[in-house]
Amino acid sequence: MVLGGIGFTLISAAFFMGLVAWYSYVKTKGEVSDSAGYFLAGRGLTGGFIAGSLLLTNLSAEQLVGLNGQAYRTNLSNMAWEVTAAFAIIIMAIYLLPKYLRGNFTTLPEFLSKRYDEGVRQYTVLLFMLGYILVTAPSMLYSGALAVLQLFNFPELFGISYVASVWIVIWLIGIIGAIYAIFGGLKAVAISDTLNGIGLIIIGLLVPILGLIALGDGSIGDGMKQIATTNPEKMNSIGTKQDSVPFGTIFTGMIFANLFYWASNQYVIQRTLGAKNLAEGQKGVLISGFYKLLVPLTMMIPGVIAFHMYGDGLKSVDLAYPALIADVLPTWMSGFFLAVLLGAVLSSFNSLLNSAATMFALDIYKARFNPGADDQKLISISKIAGTLLAVVSLCIAPLLMNAPEGLWDLIRRFTGFFNIPIIVILLVGIFTKRVPALAAKFVIIFHVITYYMLVWGTQHLFDFTVPIHFIHIYAILFVVEVVIMIAIGMWRPTANPYTFRSEAAVYMVPWKYSLPVSIVLLALVAIIYVVFSPIGLAYAGGYVSSAFWPVIAGILGITAFLSYLAIKKWNKSYAEYLLKENAVKINKEKSTAKTKLKPRTTEY
């Protein structure tokens, strides 16, 4: 990035960011005066805003920097974290979202308090808070600062140390993001996320194109030929035991890690809980799945291009993407890129802050200290909590400067402390009726201790490393903890079985394309893995092997057949099942929400 153009870059970035802030303010003015407006966007989010917000909540500088760094270091195997999320997204949209909207709750811990007790609610909030403050938020802020510092040599520009530069940039980014979350509420976050999401897609697609042109000395075709034929193993998504994501982990712990993120992580599901109706919620969730399929192109291919351009000459793998940006992006686009980059960081950070503050206000303050708190008091408490949480995260973020194997692996390992126990107690709570709160509390404590011992503890205490990949440990602990909960349920079952009360506040007719779209989404996951495999672009004997096109044709044929069945048979049965389940429970309870669930046959 040309230093002489830094003034233009900063001014243009400020313009784009100001435009997003102004539009978000206009669209939310006067709509955050009550708790529904502040915490759930007035339950009025449409599919487009939900998908855009989910995209930006999930994709941040953490992915831009981390995934490209892993592609630079090894291959495309780390794309599994993003692409295979489609399985969890479909489960969320088709099965869990209807249950969540029927329950009419604001936070996941609120649901767990109804299913178990207040103690489980507090344990879960504690897990979320520690995970958000100590791991997720700091990683978002640090990765964003890293990219900014690589683009604009702050130490040289302002005559300060690198460490000081990291602290300053992190605090600047964090303060701006906190303003969105603390003062705007969920709707402001969703609107700003959607606008920034459009920019992220534009930049995400543009960077690999410019990188391939640079790699091919002006010819995008020559650039593509080089990455496909020179070191084709870099294009392989089928990870080996030596890679950070072995292929087998996709079918073990990866499933549960993604299921936690997309089906129980508060700062993700809060967008869907604010849906205008079930159809819009499902639409938003499933569309976000298609965004995830762009990740190999937008957030990993640039890392491969960086490898071909720089070899192994970079000081840190996490510098691959920023270095490529600095070399290939035109100066006149630098301001737009900076605005998008900061927007991605801000969106994830402010989404997390909004959800953490929501849980503090509703699951801690109201639940334990002031059950009669009115909306204004809850919003006020949420803003105070958000401010304090932001300050703590801002202090921790710079400490990530010395991540040994790249930022991405470090984050995934630490996330294991809280993702598995939460998804375990959620799923057991949904599928059983007599498992007591004791089981959930025991599993949370058991998991934190056991996970630490298996991943780090034996090495720290006994100088012995457990020879099991940490993603496989996810799966092992998931199975063990489910068995523990069921065993405790058989030993000390609750006196009265749990009965799910349907209290839906929105219209519960499903999106008529939810099933066929889910089938297409799964097919595209399979196709992407074939493309980036030893029979696809990672084929050592040419561009692709002779088996490539027959396999693709087979996948398309199966997809067409299943989509036909979904449209002709499964759609109607699915819609009737959901409406019948709601109607039966509502009739038993004589709920006033019945009129909202009355089916309209045209929706089928």
From TrEMBL:
Alphabetically ordered keywords of this record: Membrane, Transmembrane, Transmembrane helix
Domain of life from the UniProt record: Bacteria
Transmembrane residue ranges: 6-26, 38-59, 79-97, 123-142, 162-183, 195-215, 245-263, 284-311, 331-357, 378-401, 413-431, 438-458, 470-492, 513-535, 547-567
Membrane topology field: Multi-pass membrane protein
Localization (cell): Membrane
InterPro entries attached to this UniProt entry: Na/Glc_symporter_sf, Na/solute_symporter
Pfam families linked to this entry: SSF
Family the UniProt entry places it in: Belongs to the sodium:solute symporter (SSF) (TC 2.A.21) family.
Name of the protein in its database record: Solute:sodium symporter family transporter
Gene source species: Mesobacillus jeotgali
Lineage summary: Bacteria, Bacillati, Bacillota, Bacilli, Bacillales
